[in-house]
């Protein structure tokens, strides 16, 4: 029947599921590239991907008005983030293929990476 949800074209992630995938991909890229969250008294504060840190990203993502998402589009975004070279990710965090998360307020935050933070 045309009503069935088993067809792949209609597969969707809930907002939270989509945000969890996005958070994990972004955070792991941040770890790989040595993303600096802030510098305090000369000490670098590097990105961390603890459960608490991931929860913050997820909650922010959900709060930004994220709705349920097309599964294929989210998967495309996540693999695009993972494939993005650090030289690019550290300059322009908006990975190609992530239009699906257009409502996220990523802002024009200056992204800074430092090899001392890189894993």
Instruction: Give the rounded overall mean pLDDT.
Output: 85
Spatial gap, N to C terminus: 50 Å
Provide the β-strand percentage band.
5-15%
Biggest sheet strand line-up: 1-4
Morphology: globular
Structural class: alpha+beta
Radius of gyration, whole Å: 16 Å
**Main sheet summary:** 2 strands, antiparallel
What can you see in these coordinates?
A hairpin with a 2-residue loop joins strand 2 and strand 3. The chain is 41% helix and 11% strand. By secondary structure, it is α+β, with helices and mostly antiparallel strands.
What attributes does this structure have?
single chain; 119 residues; alpha+beta; two-stranded antiparallel ribbon; 4 strands; globular; disordered N terminus
Would you summarize the structure shown here?
By secondary structure, the chain is α+β, with helices and mostly antiparallel strands. 41% of the residues lie in helices and 11% in strands. It is built from four helices and four strands.
């Amino acid at each position: 029947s045309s009503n069935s949800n088993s067809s792949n074209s209609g597969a969707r992630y809930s907002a939270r599921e989509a945000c969890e995938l996005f958070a994990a991909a972004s955070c792991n890229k941040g770890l790989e590239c040595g993303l600096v969250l802030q510098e305090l008294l000369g000490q670098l504060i590097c990105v961390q991907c603890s459960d608490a840190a991931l929860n913050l990203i997820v909650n922010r993502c959900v709060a930004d008005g994220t709705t349920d998402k097309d599964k294929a589009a989210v998967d495309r975004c996540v693999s695009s983030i993972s494939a993005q070279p650090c030289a690019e990710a550290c300059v322009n965090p908006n990975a190609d293929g992530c239009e699906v998360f257009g409502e996220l307020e990523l802002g024009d935050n200056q992204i800074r990476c430092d090899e001392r933070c890189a894993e």
